Predict the structure.
Amino acid sequence: MPLWYVWESSVKGTRPTWMVEQVWISLLIYWDFEKFKQKSIQNKLNRSSTQGETLHSTGRKSHIDITLDCWVGMDWSFDIGISKSSNKN
């Protein structure tokens, strides 16, 4: 199941049917810790920020898909600068 489904269930306060009850209780306890709440607030601010060098603007696209897209568009016919005259034995 996607993580947003677990988050949506936490907002509603209802345990997903596929989740073991003890795991749900553990998550509720974890989400109630002050440390988690502070990290959550900081992450919300980070996601909404428009400043900085590493803005997350790719949406649901994974990092590997973005990397592969960049590689596909690259010109792989570059010259690496090795010639027969520079290769001395």
Notes: The helical segments are 3-12, 21-32, 34-48, 63-72. Residues 34-48 form the longest helix (15 residues). The CA atoms of residues 47 and 59 lie 11 Å apart.
